[in-house]
């Protein structure tokens, strides 16, 4: 019984909850609402100060009421004044508390939109600087590439000849495949190597847009001085059929496609073109996001002015 009374004394003195007790240990939980001595003293001092102020206000109000009764010869007033009392403060809190909460939420949302707007504008600035840098590098590579102009004095073929050459080209098993590099010096060497053994060469390109396929065919025709027979849609892609001409002479390797880019620079140009398109797309998305944020900010400011 003494030991059990000791446990109860510990629990009573500390204000905790008994968790475990045995022959050697006593475990007490301090509780979720535990406060240290310093914090508890500060809370008690604050409550005493508030009660003192409230008592002072109530005493002052009662004395004012007694003075007013003396002035009015003891006649009671229909309604006493609540100015400067705790009751008036509580009524004002009930009246304007909800409005203050709405204003705080509006200000928080406005600060969030401002932060997001600045972040999006910074990202757009970085994208524009990257676009400018990529465009400058692409312009430098394009200056090294000098495409040939199409010769007006090309060989004229009849419709029967074109149809015959088209059938021959479609039956060819060997072909030249164009990749992402486009038309460069290696492509022209491969085309002339095909023309070394046969009159018609079949060039297959994987481009999806037909206008780009036509542009590639015109470039091949201008650079090789051959004749474009037709552009055919195949399962592998688009086939460009090129005829070497009746008076074909293979150019020397030194003079062949000196005005075109090398394989390495053509790959760099392809990467830069793809990167420039992606950067412009992302910059457009950032601009749309910035416009939406500005519109939301204007609407929020309008609603805040209505609340005020």
Structure in words:
The protein has about 300 residues and is α+β, with helices and mostly antiparallel strands. The chain has four domains: about 35 residues, no CATH class; about 30 residues; about 100 residues; about 100 residues, YhbY-like (Translation Initiation Factor IF3), CATH 3.30.110. It is built from seven helices and six strands; from the N terminus they run αββαααβαβαββα. Strands 3-4-6-5 form a four-stranded mixed sheet, with helices on both faces. Strand 3, helix 5 and strand 4 form a beta-alpha-beta unit. Helix 3 runs antiparallel to helix 7.
Beta-strand proportion:
5-15%
Percentage of residues in helical conformation: 55-70%
Task: Look up the CATH topology of the largest domain.
Answer: Translation Initiation Factor IF3
Counting DSSP E segments of at least 2 residues, the number of strands comes to: 6
Helical run tally: 7
Q: If you compute it from the alpha carbons, what radius of gyration comes out, rounded to the nearest whole angstrom? A: 45 Å
Q: In the CATH hierarchy, what is the superfamily of the largest domain?
A: YhbY-like
Strand order of the main beta sheet, please?
Answer: 3-4-6-5
Query: What is the string of helix and strand elements?
Result: HEEHHHEHEHEEH
Q: Main sheet? A: 4 strands, mixed
Outline, from the CA principal axes?
Answer: elongated
> In the residues, how many domains can be counted?
4
Which architecture name of the largest domain does CATH use?
2-Layer Sandwich
| Spatial gap, N to C terminus | 69 Å
CATH class of the largest domain: Alpha Beta
Low-confidence stretches: none
* Arithmetic mean pLDDT: 81
């Amino acid at each position: 019984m003494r030991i059990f009374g000791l446990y109860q004394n510990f629990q009573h003195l500390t204000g905790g909850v008994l968790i475990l007790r045995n022959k050697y240990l006593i475990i007490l939980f301090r509780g979720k609402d535990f406060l240290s001595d310093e914090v508890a003293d500060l809370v008690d001092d604050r409550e005493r100060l508030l009660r003192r102020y409230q008592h002072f206000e109530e005493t002052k109000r009662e004395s004012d009421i007694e003075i007013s009764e003396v002035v009015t010869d003891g006649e009671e007033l229909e309604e006493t004044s609540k100015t400067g009392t705790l009751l008036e403060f509580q009524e004002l809190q009930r009246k304007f508390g909800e409005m203050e909460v709405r204003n705080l939420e509006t200000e928080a949302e406005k600060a969030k939109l401002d932060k997001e707007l600045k972040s999006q504008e910074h990202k757009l600035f970085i994208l524009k600087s990257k676009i400018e840098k990529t465009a400058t590098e692409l312009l430098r590579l394009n200056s090294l590439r000098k495409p040939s102009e199409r010769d007006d004095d090309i060989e004229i073929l009849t419709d029967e000849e074109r149809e015959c050459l088209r059938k021959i080209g479609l039956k060819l098993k060997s072909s030249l495949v164009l990749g992402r590099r486009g038309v460069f010096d290696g492509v022209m060497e491969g085309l002339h190597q095909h023309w070394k053994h046969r009159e018609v060469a079949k060039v297959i390109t994987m481009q999806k847009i037909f206008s780009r396929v036509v542009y590639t065919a015109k470039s091949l025709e201008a650079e090789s001085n051959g004749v474009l027979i037709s552009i055919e849609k195949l399962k592998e892609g688009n086939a460009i059929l090129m005829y070497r001409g009746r008076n074909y002479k293979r150019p020397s390797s030194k003079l062949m496609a000196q005005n075109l880019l090398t394989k390495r620079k053509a790959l760099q140009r392809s990467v830069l073109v793809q990167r420039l398109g992606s950067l412009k797309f992302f910059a457009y998305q950032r601009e749309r996001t910035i416009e939406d944020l500005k519109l939301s900010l204007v609407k929020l400011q309008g609603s805040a002015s209505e609340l005020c």
